[in-house]
Amino acid sequence: MTGDTVESDQGRRLLGKVRDKCAKTQGAGTAWISVEDHSGLFHFPTPFAGMSLAGRTDALAELLGPLLKEYVHVAGIIVSNTARRRLPLPPDEDAPRPAAQGFRRGLPLDRVRETIVIPRRILLPDQTSLIARMCDAEATTLDWVLGKLDVPGGVTSLLADSSTPHRDSPLWTP
Questions:
Q1: Prior bond to 88 cis, omega within 30?
Q2: CB of 102 closer than 8 Å to CB of 56
Q3: What is the largest distance, in Å, between two alpha-carbon atoms of the chain?
C-alpha cells in the first residue's frame, strides 16, 4: 500500500457498532449480538492482529464485556471475521478463556474464520453451547448440506479446473 499513513482506533469503532446493536435490540427481549468485522482489525499489521487467538479473545472480552452489564437484555456478543488464506489452511484452534471462547476454523476452499463468543456469564449456558457447536461444525456444514441434497462429491463437485470447457463447468473455479 502506498500513500499517507492513516491511523484510526478500530476498537472504538467496533465498540460503537456493537453498542448501537445493543441499543436497537432493547425492546426485543433476550438478544445475541453478532458482528462480522470488515474493518481490518484482525488483518492489518497491528498489535491486535499479531496476538494469538487466546490473546484476541481476551482483548475483545475486555473491550465488549462491559456492554453485557450495561445492556442486561444481551445474552452475548459474537464477533467474527473471514479472510482468504493460501493453502494449506491453518489447523483448527479453540481458545476457551475465562470470559469468552475463540474459534479458528478453515472453511471450504481458501477461507479462515475466527469467531469470538462473549457470553453473559451467569445465564443461558445452553445457548452458549449451541453457538460453540455451530462454530465448531462450520467447516463441514456445506458438505453436510450438499450430502442431504444428494449432490455427490460435496464441495469439490462444485469446483472446476481450468481445463474444463466453460459450458460444462461447475459453479466456481478457484
A1: yes
A2: yes
A3: 58
- Among 26-35, 119-128, 159-168, the least confident range: 159-168
The C-alpha cell 445492556 sits at 71
Ordered strands of the 101-107 beta sheet: 31-36, 74-84, 111-119, 101-107, 93-96
pTM: 0.69
Sequence letter at residue 106: G
Strand 74-84 relative to strand 31-36, pairing: parallel
Radius of gyration of the chain (CA): 19
Identity of the amino acid at 34: S
**Residue 174, pLDDT score:** 47
Q: Is the pLDDT of residue 169 over 60?
A: no
